[in-house]
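Changelog note: in this version the structure field was regenerated for every chain. One regenerated record is shown below for reference.
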Amino acid sequence: MRTIWKGALTFGLVNVPVKVYSATEDHDVPLHQVHEKDGGRIRYQRTCEVCGETVAYADIDKAYVEEGQTVVLTKDDLAALPAEKSREIDVVEFVPSDQVDLLTLDKPYYLEPDSKSAKAYVLLRKTLEQTDRTAIVRFTLRQKTRLAALRVRGKVLVLQTLLWADEVREAEFPALDEDVRISKKELEMSAALVDSYSADFDPEAFVDEYQKELRTLIDAKIEAGESFEIADTFGEADADSKGGEVIDLMEALRESVARSKEKRASEKPAKAKKPAKKTG
């Protein structure tokens, strides 16, 4: 696997240097668009609708359109934004794992300890396991601030990006508001059907039948000589920072806990004093 990012996972004063890897990969057979007549590769050009010229990628800016108005954002405009350049995955809070809605889970990444000692990494992993908590973290990847869930999978820490709250649609279907009566017998039969299909989930028992059949079709065409030379149809083929090790892990943990308690205490509203009882 190839490292896509390096940084440090931080919670309190604890610093865990990590390498980030994509945890998944696409298994789809790659297909190109070609001319039906001669098999020539179809390529797209970026063309300006105003002058008709083909525009190089380096000369393209971004724009936002609203109510008939176009606002052009240049590379200098975007570079001037106070984008986070931090190489830290900052733990915001630890939440019960069952509170993380599966609907919000997005792309997963593996975290590998990037230091001589993996003690801080293993400590965090074991702590998440024993407390049944998921760490909610914030970090920047490819100039975008992202929210993510940090959880345990076997011996590795998995960072799984989360959709923002306003990216999840509400399910508003009138049919769900209707009062539907389900009889006891219908529920029993449905439960029996579920029980007949019950099994332990084994993801390796399932395959993508379409991709399997597509690969078989391609191999058959190659064997039958129904293929072209690539040169005839497609043309010729076309600084990381490393975090330091925590010197005294226990001391960092103690001080982090103390600071967290002080912060929580300072955020609690002062209790109103009870009025003194009147003596008669």
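Spot check on this record: The CA atoms of residues 7 and 87 lie 5 Å apart. The chain has a mean pLDDT of 84.
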